[in-house]
Write a structure and sequence with these properties.
about 270 residues, alpha/beta, TIM Barrel, two-stranded antiparallel sheet, 11 helices, 10 strands
Length: about 270
């Protein structure tokens, strides 16, 4: 298992500052957030080579290009699909095989069949492009989206039976939804292509409070042991959220990287 930093953790910095900081803090890889103020569409269309060159210059790998999609709104579907194709086709420039995606809202409990139908249409259009480029589409288990639960995530995998489509498993998101980690890892292991690691708690009003990686509802001693047992060898992309990430982005990323390394050092293979 390899550490990466989701550049959303450094939204307080510009993209170039975030790339430099990721390397200086000690990460070997970065997951590039494909959104303002980082690797947005304007940059992707007109200046992707400059970003790729900066990543190479500081010695980072790109663990994934990280998209924020909405494939459940029929009125926006065509535009969302075409935008996703732009990033998929840029994957070879960044020497990455993973495109992190999101399905779109609402949460699975509120979703109608039309939301799932729209997602299916998007997948039909995107899978051939991903096959042509040689990448995997890894949909995040995302709060308040179709894949917010284990059942919702498995339904997505049933819609797209091809191995081109899999998951970015965010363990805390599934824990926030009340899912059991042992069952989640076991059920999703075969299509788990990427992961996000963060921690926190659910407040009394239902909102989320994000803390250090070892402070919250997610027991990463258990999670990493489960990943070892299913032979997961992909990236663990740290995602720092909340006031700490906004006010002290570099320090917060370094804090969580140190915690992650301690967890991994304690793993017995």
């Amino acid at each position: 298992m390899k550490a990466s930093l989701f550049s959303q953790s450094l939204f307080a910095l510009t993209l170039m500052e975030a790339i430099d900081t990721t390397a200086k803090v000690g990460f070997p890889a970065i997951e590039l957030a494909c959104a303002k103020t980082h690797f947005d569409m304007e940059t992707a269309l007109h200046n992707p080579d400059r970003v790729a060159e900066r990543v190479r210059k500081v010695g980072l790998e790109v663990s994934a290009l990280s998209l924020f999609n909405n494939f459940t709104d029929e009125a926006r579907l065509d535009g969302q699909v075409e935008s996703a194709k732009v990033y998929i086709r840029l994957a070879p420039l960044f020497n990455t095989k993973i495109i992190k995606m999101t399905p779109g809202p609402p949460g699975s409990a509120e979703a109608a069949e039309d939301h799932w139908r729209c997602l299916g249409i998007a997948l039909e259009r995107l899978v051939p492009v991903a096959e042509e480029v040689g990448v995997q589409l890894a949909f995040e288990t995302h709060m308040r989206q179709l894949t917010d639960t284990l059942a919702g995530s498995k339904r997505l995998l049933e819609i797209a039976k091809t191995d081109v489509v899999g998951l970015t498993v965010d363990f805390s998101n599934l824990v926030f939804a009340g899912e059991d980690m042992r069952k989640s890892v076991s059920d999703l292991a075969g299509r788990m292509y990427n992961t996000h690691v963060k921690n926190g708690v659910v407040r009394g009003d239902g909102s989320w409070q994000f803390n250090a990686l070892d402070d919250g509802l997610t027991d990463y001693s258990e999670v990493f042991s489960l990943l070892r047992d299913v032979n997961y060898t992909g990236y663990l992309a740290i995602e720092c959220l909340g006031p700490d990430a906004s006010e002290r982005p570099a320090e917060t990323a370094k804090r969580d990287l140190d915690i992650l390394r301690r967890y991994l050092e304690r793993l017995v293979y």
